């Protein structure tokens, strides 16, 4: 019997398990991507085994304790109590799963180069227990070629061959923490496999779980590149908005009014807004995967790198503006009391990955400012290895400030109370535009 015929047989077996929901699905990495995906797969009727190296995290899942904002507490508790989801640090249970999604971090190292160590270690563990017919899908955002150049060789150390003995594909995560409309279940999915059969099997698995369209592409490299394009598109356009904000400030023009006016055009324009810097795992990081990979082809991604430089300089621009605003009242930043409203990287979430507020705090500290952070979604955070508690907002706290800086526009903030009690406001998000006329001294980014 040929390998091709054997693959056809095991593919049909796996497809049958997918269609009957009798397949056991594994999810490696139970973070912002993995846990919501595990929950959706379990809700669809599959038995799910979640793998994570953090024992505390797996214990919380097994106890039905949710730690991800996009997961419904009651749903997780019900799925774990009914044993539909099991979390473990024991990777030997990989031998019990029919398909596994890898959802581990892919950060940049200190040299702005991709760190694929989490993907590699996950693949190494999977390779120990891989079996014929198994489906393995990488979801972690990474550079084009990772699935074939990094993941495939490690898995094939098992003696099995990708595209012949097991199915291998890439399907980039599309998670937008805090999004009230789109989530894991209803966001369209892109899938690219090592072979057409790999793509078909992976797509069938996602279609059995998700409501969004599943778009098949010709290879993992195409799927990896499209994910980078998504986030690079946002990075560059936010960079343009930030550069416009800097220039408009110098020209004494309200950049927010400019963008709102441009957004009235029904074609050819999409509104992006400035801010104190980029945050989250994807947008500030992913484009640099491509700039790194481009060097292999002797190409310099000038536009991407320029946008990155602009976005990375926004905390410096915020500090410069802060000093000028305080100077108007004949106050120095050294010794000034600055109350920052928000430390999460975007509104209405507790996610602080790559939050631009952290470098702002570092710069304020270096300048000798006395800073205090208020965030209803974050109780504590680390800065340079030291744990800091956030404070509750109050009239007294606002009135005691030399400057109140709005850094994250959480919906739960009482903006009327902020406007009435803040002596000076520096609004980096245009969140107080409706209250602006009543604020004593109001400054926009």
From TrEMBL:
<dbReference type="Pfam" id="PF03721">
    <property type="entry name" value="UDPG_MGDP_dh_N"/>
</dbReference>
<keyword id="KW-0560">Oxidoreductase</keyword>
<dbReference type="InterPro" id="IPR036291">
    <property type="entry name" value="NAD(P)-bd_dom_sf"/>
</dbReference>
<dbReference type="InterPro" id="IPR036220">
    <property type="entry name" value="UDP-Glc/GDP-Man_DH_C_sf"/>
</dbReference>
<dbReference type="InterPro" id="IPR001732">
    <property type="entry name" value="UDP-Glc/GDP-Man_DH_N"/>
</dbReference>
<dbReference type="Pfam" id="PF03720">
    <property type="entry name" value="UDPG_MGDP_dh_C"/>
</dbReference>
<dbReference type="InterPro" id="IPR008927">
    <property type="entry name" value="6-PGluconate_DH-like_C_sf"/>
</dbReference>
<dbReference type="Pfam" id="PF00984">
    <property type="entry name" value="UDPG_MGDP_dh"/>
</dbReference>
<comment type="similarity">
    <text>Belongs to the UDP-glucose/GDP-mannose dehydrogenase family.</text>
</comment>
<dbReference type="InterPro" id="IPR014026">
    <property type="entry name" value="UDP-Glc/GDP-Man_DH_dimer"/>
</dbReference>
<dbReference type="InterPro" id="IPR017476">
    <property type="entry name" value="UDP-Glc/GDP-Man"/>
</dbReference>
<protein>
    <submittedName>
        <fullName>Nucleotide sugar dehydrogenase</fullName>
    </submittedName>
</protein>
<feature type="domain" description="UDP-glucose/GDP-mannose dehydrogenase C-terminal">
    <location>
        <begin position="339"/>
        <end position="434"/>
    </location>
</feature>
<dbReference type="InterPro" id="IPR014027">
    <property type="entry name" value="UDP-Glc/GDP-Man_DH_C"/>
</dbReference>
<dbReference type="InterPro" id="IPR028359">
    <property type="entry name" value="UDP_ManNAc/GlcNAc_DH"/>
</dbReference>
<keyword id="KW-0520">NAD</keyword>
